[in-house]
Amino acid sequence: xxxxxxxxxxxxxxxxxxxxxxxxxxxxxxxxxxxxxxxxxxxxxxxxxxxxxxxxxxxxxxxxxxxxxxxxxxxxxxxxxxxxxxxxxxxxxxxxxxxxxxxxxxxxxxxxxxxxxxxxxxxxxxxxxxxxxxxxxxxxxxxxxxxxxxxxxxxxxxxxxxxxxxxxxxxxxxxxxxxxxxxxxxxxxxxxxxxxxxxxxxxxxxxxxxxxxxxxxxxxxxxxxxxxxxxxxxxxxxxxxxxxxxxxxxxxxxxxxxxxxxxxxxxxxxxxxxxxxxxxxxxxxxxxxxxxxxxxxxxxxxxxxxxxxxxxxxxxxxxxxxxxxxxxxxxxxxxxxxxxxxxxxxxxxxxxxxxxxxxxxxxxxxxxxxxxxxxxxxxxxxxxxxxxxxxxxxxxxxx
Length: 399
Ligand SMILES: [Zn+2]
What we know:
The chain is α/β, with parallel strands linked by helices and about 400 residues long. It folds into 3 domains: about 5-75, Winged helix-like DNA-binding domain superfamily/Winged helix DNA-binding domain (Arc Repressor Mutant, subunit A), CATH 1.10.10.10; about 80-195 and about 375-399, Nucleotidyltransferase, domain 5; about 205-370, ATPase, nucleotide binding domain (Nucleotidyltransferase, domain 5).
């Protein structure tokens, strides 16, 4: 059957194309947009009128060539609305309100001391979202949507928190509940997928088509971009590399099995090895990540016990990455998550192990970097909302 498009569809697709030109090349004049899209100026004027009335695009006057002729330039309007990002982590929840230009306008945080039930965790997260929405209203910025990053398996079709190997949460229908409660679209992502989205859309350089984002903290998972698209798998669970078997009959994992990769390189593995080296760590280290700055200081002071643990950490990260690089052949690997500062101290050793072990010549062309931002997950949530706005442009108030 032939698909028929009505005039509204075509106008919307043209609006999407015009927005794409503005975000990549803006500011632009109407004539420049018409040239780039191969459309008539009349068509572009009509599209632009829609986008200006939706406040997605703003125009400003400029002088042409210093001869007194005036023209109008168009650009995306970052102040046309707001977006909310929610990082629902194992030990805390962070919520930010941002404008469409990704500028943070408000931030709230609450700690979740383990074990926290899904009801309690979502109650605290929901209260912060309410505060963020209130702040957006005060600033007269209608909300385009809420992006949620969660440290567990997210069912793609329903936006449900399907299973948290560490939190134990199961089948939580957050998308449906929150869309009904807050009246705005809700997009739910696994936290490593959110990190990968940030690395792809906002990394330097932007738009890397084949990349792996490894998120390492208490848990471990990955987000993989293949040929410009996020690899989700049939249900949305792709990338759970933390629970791949790594050591035969190794340490017991939160998932109930033994020897998963995360039991070696995740926070609990690092703590276990530090203690075995005789490094004193308070009991509270097991329930928070406050020990990381102290260990980084000891590494910088070249404490040989800490350096031995970091060398082993780097080797085991590199060895696991070999498998991923050989399967996906990325051009870039980004290491992020709460152990980021520790990874930065053994970045060269990780790279070395990878280069030595990966099949020639795959290691030559892959760049391995530690993320410079502690906010990849939040930015990935915002990028998800932003991409949704760009692909279906209409005013936030009408969504
Ligand atoms: Zn496991």
